[in-house]
Amino acid sequence: MNRRKFLVKIANLIFIIFSLTLFSSLFKKRDISLEELRQTVQYRIELEEIKRKKFLVIYIKNDPILLVQSNDKIQALLLRCPHRGCTLYLDRERKLISCPCHGSLFDLDGKRLRGPAPTDLRKINYKIKDKFLYIYFT
Ligand code: FES
User: Fold this and answer.
1) Is the CB–ligand 1 distance for residue 102 below 6 Å?
2) Is the overall model pTM greater than 0.70, yes or no?
């Protein structure tokens, strides 16, 4: 191999490595900065308030969202039935979420216990930073 071919191969190799690095960075899941959170946040609430009240229903764009401490983890669940979209009812004493329309039943993790709802409840994205819980849509 002469010197010119060798240099061309090295240049191609550097180009491929650079392209792969750039391409993989496009799909890398990265942590959201506080500044980005502030730009996309839909709702902000103190963690202490959730812990104190145990169950909290908030509204974002007319959608009810349940914030609940369940199994040492906070769940943020959309209180809309996956069957036909009825607003769900929270039974605080039995710790169940039920649908008044056709009787679907869910636990506090959003897991479907009884149909006709075809799926579990939709979980809402949130991030915890500096003693606050931020709900955001990306
Ligand atoms: S809308 Fe909830 S079970 Fe049908």
Assistant:
1) yes
2) no
